Amino acid sequence: MLSGTGLVAGYRKGTPVLNGMDIEIPAGSVVGLAGPSGCGKSTLARVLSLLQQPWAGRVSVDGAVVTGFRHAAPREQRTAIGLVFQQPRQAVDPRFTLWRIIAEPLHALGRSEELSGRVAELAEHLGVSDELLSRRPHEVSDGQLQRACLARALAVRPRYLVCDEMTAMLDASTTAALVRVVDEQVRDAGTGVLAISHDERLLERWAHRVVRLCPAPVWEGDRRPFRGGPTPDEV
Amino acid sequence: MSETVNATVSTAISPRTEPLLELDRLSVRFLLGRRRGGGEVRAVTDASLALRPGRVLALVGESGCGKSVLASALLGLLPANAQVRGRALLHRDRTVESGGSVELLTAPESVLARRVRGRLVGLVPQSAGTHLTPVRTARAQLEETIRRLRPRADPASADELADWAGLRPEQLDHHPHELSGGMAQRVAMALALAGDPPVVLADEPTTGLDRPLVDRTVDQLGDIAGQGRAVLLITHDLAAARRVATDVAVMYASRIVEAGPTAEVFGEPWHPYTAGLLRALPEGGFEPIPGHPPSLTELEGLERKWGCVFCQRCPEMPGFAPCTGDPEPIDHGDRRVAAHPPC
């Protein structure tokens, strides 16, 4: 289980974006996180993937409390959590080929011996052709690049996957294809997934349980309607 | 909202009204340098469309199928290695006494800059936040745009335009980085309408917005069409298209494969690709279309071999007329479809 307890986090002193958030992502399940833009969904994604230190509260991975964030995160915990961002173009090095993008995590971990086999396997699984693997980000579409980003996130076989608006830039068919790949991970490898999206129809279809986030109090439960917080109009 | 923007109220929303913008076999190719094999990318092939006053035409399709290139071609914003063929006639040029036409693809840059962009054709860009000048307030940019496009406009019209777009006057005084995605989107909408253009192109205007903001943005596009403008909504969001578009054109691998009134096309798709897209929606079955769109550099050969490129990707879609192999869309009343005539 990947869990956050009493998480308080933000960017500007005195104005927390997350204010005492609790969340649990059990292995082998998809937890949906919904809410209007600006309510802290992405901040939660950053904290849970150990990219941002919370001001208060704690994150635990399979029962072990995380003691360091960002570069201070222990490798074992850092690699247990994969992250896919909303905008693939801003999430890759524009100088790398798609092959290198997918290979990067393995490369960084010094696991070069399994590199070529694993990249080929992932590329095939995600439907990235050999020809695409040799291209750079500006030569492929958003959908093709996001496939590579999901492959990269899965490269080191994370036990948890945080998908922060993974499909917001994508067309219906690519969305359905990527969600299917993630679902296979959940079923076959018991991966726990946090699926962040503002698309309620998508979460209804994809997630086993949906948490709705709105500024200040947080309700967790069985698809309770959004209440309180600023109206979407104000955000 | 300013008087001029309100002035053109149309009662005519019939599909038969005279078009404001007519595309006739518009094609765009990008020539690749020798370093990259010297081939060519077929981004748009023989696209014929008509934008009519009072109607919203949604151009939908997978990412990378050429939708955005089409909008850039109409505004003369393509890179130097692009080759454009066909015609794009913009009627009712109000800067000419008799109401002449402009051919957008051959118009020189001076005509595009002084008469077309912002004045006859407004653009609502993708990711509005990055489209704004970061070092100036939204107000400075909006007021300058109004001043340049309509020198005789009331100085207060920035506030009116912003109010129409859903911004409070004080929100205009922020710099782009202080605006949320939704607010930046409203500024972009106000900017696109600053010159009161009869034609509005919206290129993925809702990307990254949450559902209430998507609905709001596309409803605004519906409103501006209701004032007698012609709107082209380029989007991969079928729900947004269904909500606002009167007509829809489905693009696959550089070609328009099906077009017609939205309710009919989405209600009973004739082309298996349209059906595949609808079936991929969470509420439509969540089934991805098997295979992948072809690379736009290989279309020439694929089309010679297969005719209909979609059947090469996905030959077995039950319930559709057998493929004729002719990529050219054929008219059937109000609707057009390529390769798969209605059963």
TrEMBL record, chain A:
Listed InterPro entries: AAA+_ATPase, ABC_transp_ATP-bind, ABC_transporter-like_ATP-bd, P-loop_NTPase
Has UniProt tagged this entry with the keyword Nucleotide-binding?
A: yes
Pfam annotation, one family: ABC_tran
Q: Name one GO biological process term.
A: transmembrane transport
What's the domain of life for this entry?
Bacteria
SUPFAM superfamilies per UniProt:
P-loop containing nucleoside triphosphate hydrolases
User: Where in this chain does the record put each ABC transporter domain?
Assistant: 2-235
Q: Name one GO molecular function term.
A: ATP hydrolysis activity
User: Is the keyword Calcium assigned to this protein?
Assistant: no
SMART domains attached here? AAA
Keyword annotations for this protein, in alphabetical order, are: ATP-binding, Nucleotide-binding, Transport
Instruction: Output the PROSITE patterns linked to this UniProt entry.
Output: ABC_TRANSPORTER_2 (PS50893)
Which family is this protein grouped under? Belongs to the ABC transporter superfamily.
Entry-linked PANTHER family? D,D-DIPEPTIDE TRANSPORT ATP-BINDING PROTEIN DDPF-RELATED, TRANSPORT ATP-BINDING PROTEIN
What's the protein called, per UniProt? Peptide/nickel transport system ATP-binding protein
TrEMBL record, chain B:
Q: What is its EC number?
A: 7.2.2.11
Sorted UniProt keywords? ATP-binding, Cell membrane, Ion transport, Membrane, Nickel, Nickel transport, Nucleotide-binding, Translocase, Transport
Its subcellular locations are: Cell membrane
Q: What's the protein's topology in the membrane?
A: Peripheral membrane protein
In alphabetical order, the GO MF annotations are: ABC-type nickel transporter activity; ATP binding; ATP hydrolysis activity
Question: Which Gene3D superfamilies did the record assign?
Answer: P-loop containing nucleotide triphosphate hydrolases (3.40.50.300)
Q: Does the keyword Coiled coil apply?
A: no
Q: Where is each ABC transporter domain found?
A: 21-278
Give the CC-aspect GO terms. Answer: plasma membrane
The reactions it catalyses are: Ni(2+)(out) + ATP + H2O = Ni(2+)(in) + ADP + phosphate + H(+)
- Which named protein is this? Nickel import system ATP-binding protein NikD
Lineage, highest ranks first: Bacteria, Bacillati, Actinomycetota, Actinomycetes, Actinomycetes incertae sedis
